[in-house]
Design a protein that fits this description.
By secondary structure, the chain is mainly alpha-helical. It has 3 domains: 55 residues, no CATH class; 260 residues, no CATH class; 82 residues, no CATH class. 71% of the residues lie in helices and 0% in strands. The longest helix has 39 residues. It is extended, with a radius of gyration of 31 Å. The protein starts with 22 loop residues before the first helix and ends in a 24-residue tail after the last helix. InterPro entries: Virul_fac_BrkB. It is a multi-pass membrane protein. Keywords: Cell membrane, Membrane, Transmembrane, Transmembrane helix.
Length: 419
Amino acid sequence: MTVPAPRDESVPPAASNGPGVTPLERAIEQSDNALVKRLDRPVKQATRVTRWVQRQKLYRVVTNYNLNDGNLLASGMSFQSLFAVFAALVVVFSVAGIWLTSNAAIYSALVDIIDRAIPGLIGPGGLINTDDLLGLGLYGWTGTVALVGLLWTAISWLAYTRQAIRSVFSLPRDSRPYLLQKVVDLGLALVFGLMLFASAVFSVLSTQAVTWVLFLFGIDSNSGASTVAAGAIGLLVAVMVNLVTIGSMYRILSRIPIPWRDLAGGALIGSVALSALSVFSGWVIQAASRNPLLATFAVFIGLLIWFNAICRIILLAASWIAVSVEDRGVQLHRMSRAERLDAERRARLVVAEAELRDARDEYENASWMSRPLSRRRLRQAHREWQAAREALAEASPTGAMPAPTATRPTGRTGVGGPL
């Protein structure tokens, strides 16, 4: 549920008891104690500051995040991602390991991108040795079954992420069939994997291009300028990968028709925040290893903390978009065919109830000459009302008839009058 911006109400004068006066201000106004009266001005100033803070977008973004249990959702996402990332690594490197072995530069760039996104996972001093990744192989029926299980674990994180993002937008669960969702998640997982390879190739090509340009100007590839250029390229690649990934999560994975302007702004904020978070990656891992009780599991604890921070940023950026869309009055929820049919049935019942009330009142107030015609209209209205109730009951999961709200006992035969 998004938080609309509060109205810009000025603080009323001391003698006012209008709707803008807080209970504390009213209590101070009604008090005869001189000491309490001295609190009147500070309280009004605090109220003015509080209302100003509540009008700020950042406050409303955080409030919307908390109202939709953002921290709880992020915790669930981070726990699932710990298993999904290991499964994804096994799947990717077992399938593409042979090709990566023959392309050392692309393999090194891919490892650097993953290490920048998830510090402490692979590489020197990481949880997984890079040599072990190239030795992965899943062959035969046993390997196929293991590959399917790992792939299922990897794409399950996408399902958790979709539901978490939709919850931040206060939208209902995805109504598509379960198997269809899994097929779409599999396709998105493959797209994200290909995007990682594409970013690795782009990183290698751009680094070589910069090195060639520096060579034309007589600058050594090991110089400070070359190092700075390589770092800038790596940061740019990380920002672009995060931007495309987050934007795809919000609009494609979560199936939310976010306007492109709002999507670009929120995804860019999340992408920059994730890239900035990578600067503190070493501090996060070290903070987890300082506790002697957690020394044995320092890497796992550090990864959990890291994943939790990433998931919070993803959901906070989603909350930013949700508030932006709410401020512009854009309706994001598009009813499915089943929801539209249910709304039509309910609308039909409301109209039938109104017509039945009108027909009953007309019959009760009709003269003896017009009573036969009124009775006929009442019977037709009652049949339509009964048909609308039955149609709604048939579509209900329980099959229960809706409670009658349009009629009342009149002491005559039938519902609402003699039928």
